[in-house]
Design a protein that fits this description.
With 229 residues, this protein is mainly α. It has two domains: 108 residues, Orthogonal Bundle (Endonuclease Iii, domain 2), CATH 1.10.1670.10; 100 residues, Endonuclease III, domain 1, CATH 1.10.340.30. 56% of the residues lie in helices and 3% in strands. Strands 1-2 form a two-stranded parallel ribbon. Helix 2 packs antiparallel against helix 8 and helix 9 packs across helix 11. It starts with 5 loop residues before the first strand and ends with a strand. The N terminus and C terminus are likely disordered.
Protein backbone atom coordinates (compact mmCIF):
# COMPACT_ATOMS: atom_id res chain seq x y z
CA UNK A 1 0.00 0.00 0.00
CA UNK A 2 1.39 3.39 -0.94
CA UNK A 3 1.58 5.87 1.85
CA UNK A 4 -0.87 8.71 1.55
CA UNK A 5 -3.26 6.92 -0.81
CA UNK A 6 -5.65 5.70 1.86
CA UNK A 7 -7.09 8.00 4.45
CA UNK A 8 -10.15 7.69 6.60
CA UNK A 9 -11.65 9.25 9.66
CA UNK A 10 -12.05 7.31 12.88
CA UNK A 11 -15.78 7.06 12.20
CA UNK A 12 -15.21 5.78 8.66
CA UNK A 13 -12.75 3.19 9.96
CA UNK A 14 -15.24 1.88 12.52
CA UNK A 15 -17.91 1.69 9.81
CA UNK A 16 -15.53 -0.21 7.52
CA UNK A 17 -14.60 -2.63 10.30
CA UNK A 18 -18.31 -3.22 10.98
CA UNK A 19 -18.81 -4.12 7.31
CA UNK A 20 -15.80 -6.46 7.39
CA UNK A 21 -17.12 -8.25 10.49
CA UNK A 22 -20.58 -8.59 8.97
CA UNK A 23 -19.10 -10.13 5.82
CA UNK A 24 -16.95 -12.52 7.86
CA UNK A 25 -20.00 -13.56 9.90
CA UNK A 26 -22.01 -14.17 6.75
CA UNK A 27 -19.21 -16.18 5.13
CA UNK A 28 -17.94 -18.23 8.07
CA UNK A 29 -20.70 -18.01 10.67
CA UNK A 30 -20.38 -16.96 14.28
CA UNK A 31 -19.76 -20.32 15.94
CA UNK A 32 -16.31 -20.66 17.47
CA UNK A 33 -14.19 -23.39 15.88
CA UNK A 34 -10.91 -25.01 16.81
CA UNK A 35 -8.62 -26.49 14.14
CA UNK A 36 -6.76 -28.72 16.62
CA UNK A 37 -8.17 -32.02 17.84
CA UNK A 38 -8.37 -32.60 21.59
CA UNK A 39 -10.52 -34.17 24.29
CA UNK A 40 -9.13 -32.64 27.48
CA UNK A 41 -8.06 -29.07 28.19
CA UNK A 42 -4.42 -30.04 28.71
CA UNK A 43 -4.43 -31.82 25.35
CA UNK A 44 -5.38 -28.57 23.61
CA UNK A 45 -2.59 -26.79 25.49
CA UNK A 46 -0.06 -29.40 24.35
CA UNK A 47 -1.39 -29.34 20.78
CA UNK A 48 -0.98 -25.55 20.64
CA UNK A 49 2.57 -25.84 22.00
CA UNK A 50 3.31 -28.33 19.22
CA UNK A 51 1.72 -26.10 16.57
CA UNK A 52 4.41 -23.39 16.74
CA UNK A 53 5.94 -23.18 13.26
CA UNK A 54 3.94 -26.24 12.23
CA UNK A 55 0.62 -26.82 10.48
CA UNK A 56 -2.47 -27.84 12.42
CA UNK A 57 -2.86 -30.80 10.06
CA UNK A 58 0.57 -32.17 11.01
CA UNK A 59 -0.10 -31.60 14.71
CA UNK A 60 -3.40 -33.49 14.50
CA UNK A 61 -1.64 -36.41 12.82
CA UNK A 62 0.99 -36.54 15.58
CA UNK A 63 -1.38 -36.06 18.52
CA UNK A 64 -3.70 -38.76 17.16
CA UNK A 65 -1.08 -41.28 18.31
CA UNK A 66 0.58 -39.19 21.02
CA UNK A 67 -2.56 -38.83 23.13
CA UNK A 68 -3.16 -42.57 22.91
CA UNK A 69 0.35 -43.43 24.07
CA UNK A 70 0.42 -40.76 26.79
CA UNK A 71 -3.10 -40.84 28.18
CA UNK A 72 -2.61 -38.61 31.23
CA UNK A 73 -0.59 -35.64 32.40
CA UNK A 74 1.34 -37.99 34.64
CA UNK A 75 2.29 -40.06 31.57
CA UNK A 76 3.79 -36.93 30.01
CA UNK A 77 5.49 -35.84 33.23
CA UNK A 78 7.18 -39.23 33.58
CA UNK A 79 8.07 -39.61 29.90
CA UNK A 80 11.62 -40.23 28.72
CA UNK A 81 12.69 -37.17 26.77
CA UNK A 82 14.51 -39.11 24.05
CA UNK A 83 11.45 -41.28 23.49
CA UNK A 84 9.24 -38.19 23.42
CA UNK A 85 11.52 -36.67 20.80
CA UNK A 86 11.07 -39.75 18.63
CA UNK A 87 7.30 -39.59 19.11
CA UNK A 88 7.08 -36.03 17.76
CA UNK A 89 10.11 -35.86 15.44
CA UNK A 90 7.97 -35.08 12.37
CA UNK A 91 7.18 -31.69 13.94
CA UNK A 92 9.55 -28.75 13.71
CA UNK A 93 11.61 -27.88 16.80
CA UNK A 94 10.72 -31.29 18.20
CA UNK A 95 13.58 -31.43 20.71
CA UNK A 96 12.59 -28.18 22.42
CA UNK A 97 8.90 -29.10 22.25
CA UNK A 98 9.49 -32.54 23.79
CA UNK A 99 11.28 -30.89 26.70
CA UNK A 100 8.52 -28.29 27.08
CA UNK A 101 5.71 -30.87 27.08
CA UNK A 102 7.35 -32.79 29.92
CA UNK A 103 8.13 -29.64 31.95
CA UNK A 104 4.67 -28.24 31.32
CA UNK A 105 3.03 -31.47 32.51
CA UNK A 106 5.12 -31.48 35.67
CA UNK A 107 4.24 -27.86 36.51
CA UNK A 108 0.54 -28.42 35.85
CA UNK A 109 0.59 -31.33 38.29
CA UNK A 110 2.80 -29.74 40.93
CA UNK A 111 1.43 -26.18 40.92
CA UNK A 112 -2.06 -26.27 39.39
CA UNK A 113 -3.37 -29.66 40.56
CA UNK A 114 -3.45 -30.93 36.99
CA UNK A 115 -5.73 -28.15 35.75
CA UNK A 116 -4.97 -25.69 32.97
CA UNK A 117 -5.09 -22.19 34.51
CA UNK A 118 -7.09 -19.36 32.95
CA UNK A 119 -4.93 -16.50 34.20
CA UNK A 120 -2.61 -15.28 31.46
CA UNK A 121 0.35 -14.77 33.81
CA UNK A 122 -0.05 -18.33 35.09
CA UNK A 123 -0.28 -19.67 31.56
CA UNK A 124 2.85 -17.93 30.30
CA UNK A 125 4.74 -19.32 33.30
CA UNK A 126 4.36 -22.78 31.77
CA UNK A 127 7.16 -24.18 29.61
CA UNK A 128 6.57 -23.53 25.91
CA UNK A 129 3.66 -21.14 26.49
CA UNK A 130 3.81 -17.59 25.19
CA UNK A 131 1.11 -14.96 24.94
CA UNK A 132 -0.29 -16.36 21.68
CA UNK A 133 -0.72 -19.85 23.14
CA UNK A 134 -2.16 -18.40 26.35
CA UNK A 135 -4.78 -16.46 24.41
CA UNK A 136 -5.76 -19.55 22.40
CA UNK A 137 -6.37 -21.39 25.68
CA UNK A 138 -8.25 -18.50 27.29
CA UNK A 139 -10.48 -18.14 24.26
CA UNK A 140 -11.17 -21.79 23.45
CA UNK A 141 -11.34 -23.30 26.93
CA UNK A 142 -12.59 -20.45 29.08
CA UNK A 143 -14.36 -18.33 26.46
CA UNK A 144 -12.45 -15.29 27.70
CA UNK A 145 -12.36 -12.61 24.97
CA UNK A 146 -8.82 -12.83 23.62
CA UNK A 147 -7.09 -11.91 20.37
CA UNK A 148 -4.57 -14.40 19.08
CA UNK A 149 -1.92 -12.86 16.85
CA UNK A 150 -0.46 -15.52 14.59
CA UNK A 151 1.14 -15.01 11.18
CA UNK A 152 -2.23 -14.87 9.38
CA UNK A 153 -3.75 -12.37 11.81
CA UNK A 154 -0.66 -10.17 11.76
CA UNK A 155 -0.36 -10.14 7.97
CA UNK A 156 -4.02 -9.77 7.02
CA UNK A 157 -4.85 -7.24 9.75
CA UNK A 158 -2.10 -5.05 8.29
CA UNK A 159 -3.47 -5.51 4.76
CA UNK A 160 -6.88 -4.46 6.03
CA UNK A 161 -5.35 -1.29 7.47
CA UNK A 162 -6.07 -2.21 11.09
CA UNK A 163 -2.46 -2.05 12.30
CA UNK A 164 0.90 -0.74 11.18
CA UNK A 165 2.85 -2.57 13.87
CA UNK A 166 5.05 -5.64 13.58
CA UNK A 167 5.30 -6.56 17.26
CA UNK A 168 2.54 -9.12 18.07
CA UNK A 169 1.65 -7.47 21.40
CA UNK A 170 1.23 -4.09 19.69
CA UNK A 171 -0.86 -5.71 16.95
CA UNK A 172 -2.99 -7.31 19.66
CA UNK A 173 -3.51 -3.95 21.33
CA UNK A 174 -4.41 -2.28 18.00
CA UNK A 175 -7.02 -4.93 17.28
CA UNK A 176 -8.49 -4.76 20.78
CA UNK A 177 -9.07 -1.05 20.24
CA UNK A 178 -10.91 -1.43 16.94
CA UNK A 179 -12.69 -4.79 17.23
CA UNK A 180 -15.70 -5.38 19.49
CA UNK A 181 -15.05 -7.94 22.24
CA UNK A 182 -17.62 -10.39 20.89
CA UNK A 183 -15.44 -10.79 17.79
CA UNK A 184 -12.01 -11.07 19.42
CA UNK A 185 -11.96 -14.88 19.36
CA UNK A 186 -13.75 -15.10 16.01
CA UNK A 187 -11.23 -12.74 14.40
CA UNK A 188 -8.43 -15.25 14.75
CA UNK A 189 -10.58 -18.17 13.58
CA UNK A 190 -11.96 -16.34 10.54
CA UNK A 191 -8.71 -14.69 9.51
CA UNK A 192 -6.86 -18.02 9.66
CA UNK A 193 -9.49 -19.48 7.32
CA UNK A 194 -9.23 -16.47 5.01
CA UNK A 195 -5.44 -16.67 5.02
CA UNK A 196 -5.43 -20.36 4.12
CA UNK A 197 -7.98 -20.13 1.31
CA UNK A 198 -8.04 -16.65 -0.27
CA UNK A 199 -5.58 -14.16 1.19
CA UNK A 200 -2.69 -16.59 0.84
CA UNK A 201 0.78 -15.24 1.50
CA UNK A 202 2.61 -14.41 -1.75
CA UNK A 203 -0.40 -15.35 -3.90
CA UNK A 204 -3.41 -13.42 -2.69
CA UNK A 205 -6.64 -13.92 -4.62
CA UNK A 206 -7.82 -10.34 -4.25
CA UNK A 207 -10.22 -10.64 -7.18
CA UNK A 208 -12.01 -13.49 -5.42
CA UNK A 209 -12.01 -11.98 -1.94
CA UNK A 210 -15.36 -11.05 -0.42
CA UNK A 211 -13.62 -8.30 1.56
CA UNK A 212 -12.01 -6.61 -1.45
CA UNK A 213 -14.29 -3.57 -1.37
CA UNK A 214 -13.28 -2.84 2.21
CA UNK A 215 -9.61 -3.80 1.94
CA UNK A 216 -7.23 -0.90 1.20
CA UNK A 217 -4.53 -3.26 -0.06
CA UNK A 218 -6.84 -5.09 -2.44
CA UNK A 219 -8.36 -1.90 -3.81
CA UNK A 220 -5.02 -0.24 -4.47
CA UNK A 221 -3.53 -3.40 -5.94
CA UNK A 222 -6.12 -3.06 -8.68
CA UNK A 223 -4.89 0.44 -9.44
CA UNK A 224 -7.68 2.26 -7.68
CA UNK A 225 -7.55 4.75 -4.85
CA UNK A 226 -9.91 5.25 -1.99
CA UNK A 227 -10.36 8.15 0.33
CA UNK A 228 -12.91 8.13 3.11
CA UNK A 229 -12.34 11.30 5.08
Amino acid sequence: MKKGTFKETKKAKHERVARILEKLDNKYGTQKRCFLNYRYDWQLLFAVILSAQCTDERVNIVTNDLFVKYKTLNDFACADIKEMERDINSIGLYRAKAKNLILCAKRLLEVYDGKVPSDIDALVSLAGVGRKTANVIRGNIYDIPSIVVDTHVKRISAKLGLTVNEDPVKVENDLMEILPKDHWILWNIDIITLGRTICIARREKCGECFLNKDCPTGIMKNGNSIQAT
